[in-house]
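Running this now, will post back.
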Amino acid sequence: MFSLRSVSKTFPNATIALEDITAEIEPGDFVALLGPSGCGKSTLLRLLAGLEAPSAGSIEWEHRPGPGDIGFVFQDATLLPWASAEENVYLPLRLRGRKWADAAALVESALAQVGLADFANAKPRALSGGMKMRVSIARALVSDPMLLLMDEPFAALDEFTRHRLQDDLHALWRRSGKTIVFITHSIYEAAYLASRILVLSPRPGRIAADIRTAIPEGERRRASAAYTDLVAEITETFQRVMPVHE
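Update: finished.
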């Protein structure tokens, strides 16, 4: 889908966020960006979204994305508090000039994909934290993007809700075949969700490891030996990457 060619990012205050990032992302990959705070994960997502430009290197697209081709899910649901769930999902289409009559079926489908078909008219104040995040994901999906960027979307949720949304996102990815780049600080979350894990070093962020995953599908994925082995492999990688403090 796209290639990162020796991508680096230095900010005006001389902070080097990313250095010499090179990777090939294939269509249908679920890539987890895993690394310590401040290692440039969010900066990399902003570069992919076109919100920032690399200071060096390049991002080469197989098919350059147009309007609606990239969906972005932030850590906070960032919903309009006065708008219903369907109005929040409709927002990106409305901003691009789509009339409600043309967009209604797309909004309905997006809400159904995240299990909120019966909550189309609910305002954010009537929704739980997990439901708000589902609306945010539906808003990112409504344009049928070829690439979905997710910046720690489950970090603020309780463990039960987080597991449920992980299950739903994994099923959505398997069903849709979309390419997803997902930021997390959780080794367990990365191991469960991703088909591929890019481990970033402390700032300046560099790719310290590129781990391919192979966990059998099914309800007991988290209980499988393959999952346990993968968590151990990622943990060992982290121990090699992270600096030792005396």
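The two ends are 43 Å apart (CA to CA). More later if anyone needs it.
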